[in-house]
Amino acid sequence: MTKIKYGRDTYPLGKDQSVLDCLVEHGAPVPFSCRSGVCQTCLMRALRGVPPDASQQGLKDSLKLQNYFLACVCHPMEDLEAALPHEVLSSVPATVAALDPLNGEIMHVALECHDPLEYRAGQFINLFRTPALGRSYSLASVPQQDEHLHLHVRRLPQGKVSGWIHEELRTGQTVELRGPSGDCFYVPGRPEQEIVMIGTGSGLAPLYGILRDALHRGHSGPIRLFHGSRSRAGLYLTGELRDLARKYPNFDYVPCVSGERPAPGLAGGRAHEMAFKEVTDFKDKRLFLCGHPEMVSAAKTRAFLAGAAIKDIYADPFNVNAAAAP
Amino acid sequence: MTDKKLADWWTESHASLYAKLGGEAAVNAAVDIFYRKVLADPRINRFFEGVDMEKQAAKQKAFLTMAFGGPHNYTGMDMRRGHAHLVQQGLNDTHFDAVMEHLGATMKELNVPGELIAQAAAIAESTRNDVLGR
Fold first, then answer.
1. CB B132 within 8 A of CB B92
2. Residue (of A240, A231, A234) closest to A260 by Cα position
3. A133-138 and A149-154: which strand pairing?
4. Three-state SS string across B35-97, please?
5. What crossing angle do the helices spanning B23-40 and B3-21 adopt, rounded to 10°?
6. Sign of the four-CA dihedral A204, A205, A211, A212
7. Residue of B nearest to A58 (CA)
8. In sequence order, which residues have a C-beta less than 8 Å from that of residue A249 and are 6 or more positions away?
9. What pLDDT, on a 0 to 100 scale, did the predictor assign at position A116?
């Protein structure tokens, strides 16, 4: 008999019973609505076991890869351990391996996990200053290429965690992490597809990881990265990105400044405005949007109206104070 | 018609329409086209401001599945509850008509035969009073 583990309890699945019906019958607090595999309200993730393909229909590729499934149409052939999307994994300790300023407001933080962390470039982790005080930071590193986890931490005014990272954190110190989470990452397949990346500020962190991951995996279609900041001083990794653009003919890097006259080699205007000026048709293109939540939301809608399929839009809005307490 | 009866009636009388249109594949093909039309329409797009696009697309998919007579468990009561906040913001017949227009245009774009479009429209139309809270 197939069993479903949820939280601390394990339930036997009845004949022809869906995971949702089984959990609801036992009083587990799982949200649901259409019960037909359509509305995605009952989205869950298999921590152990593989959910059947039929329970992943209509999900984004990056969610499928992480064993997300729709509980209402899930009839597993093997035992599953299931969790709700926000029920993240337990915390792991990591040692600070390096701290280097990338510009006046963004710090590069390299972390060495005490146990190897499985992640994909572009996902995020929660970093905790105290057990109750943590923040989400995107991963700029690529597991196959970088030894440590890399974060780009922008110092926020009165930032309780970012301020602490900038001022007090030292190399050799141990911190607690949770994660990884998030579905904004490169999914192998369709290597010829055109990719457009738009980021603001430290929204470059996940894009830098995703970009190198895609190039490393042999993505052959054009990849265009628009990175924006108010001023030239807010841009960073420009040398590295220009080097990549020289090395890979299919990669194009457009640094943008919106608050001052652009120096030679920089574009004048906001990153997403530049992107939509240069790319007018988003049909069949893959899109990555990271950074300011309003930019992400506006660009999402605009790209969708310009022909992008919702399944091809990957976004990571940087909401301030968004990390959940453990 | 409310509660479970509505869902039963759909399932019984329109399961074949869903199959004729191509089942889930048809819904998948239609959802982006339909939602793009809805979002681009200045008569109704204010009702979608600030909502999560992905979640809303899933809802649009649920709506199309229902309109195509596919499997769903929505009831008249769900329809009322799901749209009550929009009715408070002024949702009325003209907005409902606009959505119906986009539904028809989407199916036309996908070369669905006229009689099947009419059937799908009739199913969607039958939710009007529940959606508008009457």
1. yes
2. A231
3. unpaired
4. HHHHHHCCCCHHHHCCCCHHHHHHHHHHHHHHHCCCCCCCCHHHHHHHHHHHHHCCCCHHHHH
5. 100
6. positive
7. B28
8. none
9. 85
Q: Which residues of A touch B61 (CB under 8 A)?
A: 38-39, 58
Task: Tell me: pLDDT of A323 over 60.
Answer: no
Structural tokens at position A138: 């995107």
Cα–Cα nearest to A110, from A79, A72, A147, A150: A150
Cβ-based neighbours of B99, under 8 Å, separated by 6 or more: B38, B44, B124
Length of chain B: 134
Per-residue pLDDT tens for A151-160?
A: 999 999 889 9
Q: How far apart are CA A116 and CA A124, in angstroms?
A: 15
**What is the DSSP track for A43-100?**
EEEEEES---GGGGTT--HHHHHTTEEEGGG---SS-EEEE-TT-PPPPEEEEEEEEE
Q: How far are the Cα atoms of A108, A125, A136, A155, A292 from residue A101, in angstroms, in the given order?
A: 6, 20, 19, 11, 21
The tens digit of pLDDT for each residue in A194-240 reads: 999 999 999 999 999 999 999 999 999 999 999 999 999 999 999 99
Per-residue confidence band for B1, with pLDDT thresholds at 50, 70 and 90: low
Is the predicted pLDDT of residue A325 greater than 50, yes or no? no
Of B61, B70, B71, the CB nearest to A58: B61
Q: Collect all residues of chain A within an 8 Å Cβ-Cβ radius of residue B54.
A: 310
Q: So what's the pLDDT on residue B96?
A: 97
Average pLDDT over residues A148-174: 95
- Asked if A224 and A211 touch (Cβ cutoff 8 Å), the reply is no
User: Tens digits of per-residue pLDDT, A116-139?
Assistant: 888 999 999 999 999 889 999 999
B61 and A304: CB-CB below 8 Å?
no
Contact A192, A144 (CB under 8 A): no
CB within 8 Å: B61 and A35:
no
How many beta-carbon contacts under 8 Å exist across A and B? 52
- Which residues partner with A107 through β-bridges? A101, A153
Query: What pLDDT is recorded for position A162?
Result: 95
Cα–Cα nearest to A82, from A10, A186, A156: A10
Confidence of residue A36 (pLDDT cuts 50, 70, 90): confident
**Residue B51: CA atoms inside 13 Å, Cβ hemisphere, count?**
16
Residue pair A248/A225 in contact by the 8 Å Cβ criterion: no
Greatest distance between any 2 Cα atoms in chain A: 68
User: What pTM value is reported for the model?
Assistant: 0.85
